[in-house]
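step: validate -> pass
step: tokenize input -> pass
step: predict -> running
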Amino acid sequence: MTNLGCLDTLARQDSPIHRLDPRTKLLTTLVFIVMIVSFDKYQISAMLPFAVFPVVLIVLGNLPAGYLMKRVLWVAPFAMLVGIFNPLLDRQALLHIGTLEISGGWVSFASILIRFFLTVLAAFVLVATTGFNTICLSLEKIGVPNVFVMQLLFLYRYAFVLAEESSRMLRAWQLRAPLRKAMSMKTFSTVLGSLFLRTTGRAQRIYQAMCCRGFEGQLHPARRFHWRMADTVFLFGFCLLFAVFRFANPAVLLGKFVMGIFS
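step: predict -> pass
step: emit ->
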């Protein structure tokens, strides 16, 4: 959770990407994700050119590429868990590299990993260049129901409350049992129940404090959004590029071009 909070810190930088209207970055990222997930499960090379989008945003947004890659790798086991059984279920040979046969299961597994890497990296870049609060405001501006936006914002914020309370209880247990390396099941269940009660009470106090400060279920932006020509160029330029990548497959065209030169 601390690492996720660092993404909000990166969003306070000043760069050409940070200065864009949040709505254009949100819409462009949504189009990017839709294009990625629309590919067939056996397509790999066609998705590789889409890496241009997060790379351009990382460079122009002055973001730490190594830090973002580490965050992606932290959640990579979830994607591996989704596709790890594909090689066992789909054993039909799909590719031949010399005498080596590659089954469709391994190809689809690689496709899942590439989809995961591109979409999650794009999401992290969006948060790192916009901020989660601003993303929620953008969702409301483009017509997403306020109830959904507020639930998403509270889920994100209360996750930090949960992490903070968990850290406090873990430190308390370590001070009371310094010689133990792990909790017993009985202790863990007791701590889990206490954690639920403490976080619920903390959340109620936070909500009461928000109501005392005039909260009425609406988000109030600290600054107004201004759509400029640069935002239009960014949105339509990348959407056009995505359409070219999706339907033209530059990787195949480049391969045919190189083969034609050397043939």
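step: describe -> The chain is about 70% helix and 5% strand.
step: cleanup -> pass
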